[in-house]
Specification:
Layout lengths: L2 H11 L7 E6 L2 E6 H9 L3 H16 L5 H13 L8
Antiparallel strand pairs: 1-2
Amino acid sequence: MTFSKWLNTFVEEKDLDLDHTFEVEGDGGLNLIPLGAVIETMQAWPDGLQAKTKGKLVSIDFANGDVIPFFKGIAGVMALNKYTNLTV
C-alpha cells in the first residue's frame, strides 16, 4: 500500500476533518492551514520521510495519543517554509 493510500485511510479511520484549520505563526504572521493541505504536503514528501512519518503516526496511535498536535507541528513547518529543517 502506498503512503498516500495509507495516510488517507488513517485519516478516514480516525474520522479527522480535512477542513480542520490550524492557526500557526509564520514569517509573515498568522497562517490558517487546513488539515487537507497538510495531508497533501505529506503525500508529496520523499519516501524516507514518508516512512518516518508513518512510523511516528503509528506510534502515537498505538499509545492512544492524539495525532492532531503532530499534524499541527507539520502545519507550523509549512507556515515557516523550513522543510530543510523538518524532522519527524
